[in-house]
């Protein structure tokens, strides 16, 4: 667990849901016709399931979810520009200027290989959490509160998908998700700094709140 060491202690896991997302129970139960059986498939499936989750949430609230305009895999320094800023290596981010998500595929793949598919199912829903914020707020900008809310939204997304049997939970690997939470990035800040994304404890708490209580609790 190289990233755990690099990011410091994961902290108290007692508050953490004892579930983790695993393979989809059945793709036929969702609108997502993607096989999540390898890295590329899991990334696409995480995107599709997350957007279908939010489409339903918005619909239930009388609104319409706007899917991201683009979903871009990049390699290290070849990433797309966002608001005049170049994409950073080893990162994933939502760009409000263009309403797209981009991720360093080499970096995400390394986490996937080290920690399992839970890596993808935390990082991607977190970034879609920002895409949702940008639709709900007039003057979206990144700050710690937004990061914690995005963690909460990610937890709510996973909890909702598990409850709908669109992904299966597996016991005994809580730390995987939370380690990944610490590693989830954004372009505008140093993600390893506690004051950029919140402390690991705060992030775990936000994630667990969303997971247990849903979007309204975020
Ligand atoms: Zn973020």
UniProtKB/TrEMBL annotation:
Keyword hit for Membrane: yes
Cellular location(s): Membrane
UniProt keywords, alphabetically: Membrane, Transmembrane, Transmembrane helix
InterPro entries documented for this protein: Uncharacterised_pept_Zn_put
Topology class, membrane: Single-pass membrane protein
Predominant localisation class: membrane
Family annotation (PANTHER family): INNER MEMBRANE PROTEIN, PUTATIVE MEMBRANE PROTEIN YPFJ
Protein name in the entry: Neutral zinc metallopeptidase
């Amino acid at each position: 667990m190289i990233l755990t060491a690099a990011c410091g202690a994961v902290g108290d896991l007692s508050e953490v849901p004892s579930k983790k997302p695993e393979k989809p129970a059945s793709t036929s139960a969702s609108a997502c016709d993607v096989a999540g059986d390898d890295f590329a498939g899991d990334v696409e499936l995480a995107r599709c399931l997350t957007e279908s989750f939010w489409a339903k949430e918005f619909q239930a609230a009388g609104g319409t979810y706007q899917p991201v305009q683009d979903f871009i895999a990049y390699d290290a320094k070849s990433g797309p520009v966002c608001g005049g800023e170049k994409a950073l290596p080893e990162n994933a981010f939502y760009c409000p200027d263009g309403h797209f998500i981009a991720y360093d595929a080499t970096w995400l793949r390394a986490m996937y290989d080290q920690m399992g598919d839970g890596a993808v199912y935390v990082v991607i829903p977190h970034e879609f959490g920002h895409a949702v914020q940008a639709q709900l707020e007039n003057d979206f900008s990144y700050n710690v509160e937004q990061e914690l809310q995005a963690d909460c939204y990610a937890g709510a997304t996973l909890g909702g998908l598990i409850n709908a049997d669109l992904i299966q939970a597996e016991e005994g690997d809580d730390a995987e998700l939370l380690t990944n939470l610490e590693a989830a990035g954004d372009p505008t800040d140093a993600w390893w700094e506690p004051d950029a994304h919140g402390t690991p404890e705060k992030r775990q708490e936000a994630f667990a709140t969303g997971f247990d209580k849903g979007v309204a609790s975020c």
